[in-house]
Fold this protein.
Amino acid sequence: MGTGTQALIAEWADAHDQAVVFTREAQAYARSTESRVRLAAIEARTLARAGDADGAAAALDLATRIRDTTDQPDSLDERAESAGH
């Protein structure tokens, strides 16, 4: 099982501290922009559910920075191209 999946399971089980550890560990191995943004979003949601508004905002900022500073296309870009947008 991947670390990102473990993060989701921990989040769903309300094991917020463990979920955050898993998301941060998974970031070290994530290759695609989509994966890195998704992991930051999971971290943000987990921190928000744990009541850490500042941490959640920081994780959302990270997700935005990752998304905005990449030159790698993601599946949404590919779908838009195939739809003629």
About this structure: Residues 33-49 form the longest helix (17 residues). The mean pLDDT is 86.
